[in-house]
Amino acid sequence: MQLAELIFMVIVVLAGAYVRGYSGFGSALLWISGLSLILPPVQVIPTVFMLDVAASVHLLPKVWKQAHWRSLRWLLLGTLIATPPGLYLLATLPATPMRIAIYTVILATTALLWRGFKLTRIPAPGPTFLTGLLSGLLNGATGIAGPPAILLYFSSPTSVAVARASVIAFLSGTHVLGITFASGYGLITASLLMRTLLLLPVVFVGIALGNRRFIRTEPETFRRFVLLFLAVLSVAGLVRTLLYS
Fold this sequence. Notes:
Elements: H1 3-23, H2 27-35, H3 41-63, H4 69-92, H5 95-114, H6 125-142, H7 146-154, H8 160-184, H9 190-215, H10 219-244
């Protein structure tokens, strides 16, 4: 790898880690989009899974007690069940229309939340489990499981700290699942693992800077940032789908 590519990789990883430390999500899409410019996808996806788990492990001790574990159990169960069918749909159905539909729904839901829509409480186990199923399908079809869970927690009456902590815990589980699948397919090689280990200090620096920024941010300002960033990710997903379909 040339020096310019190495510098670019460090910048991408640092930016994704900063966003992850601040908002609790968003690093995976940034890393996938950026690293795909210099690495083949077969190396990018497992690398992102491992970097994101490292980021989650770094954050989890700080948010463990804040996470809404009662709902997370049902959310993760649904995701676990629906990820393999999502992979099957990706392999058998036209991917482009499916991804366009998913990102359009996410964008429309984000617009509703921006206009003031809120849940009166965390949904019961049934709706939460269904949200997990949607996350699993999205995980299998696109590699990005977070948006349904993000919308669930940030539309609920819980504090932004609880919502952020719950999203961090959820993403930890989904990316451990991703590593399991990647290992099963033999995608995690010795060279890929070594590159990931060398990038870990960059991740930890970015996480620390982003987390410090979160602590100093007002709750309503943070909520607006989350919704705006989710909208940007949805639009980026639509554009990426259209360009690379």
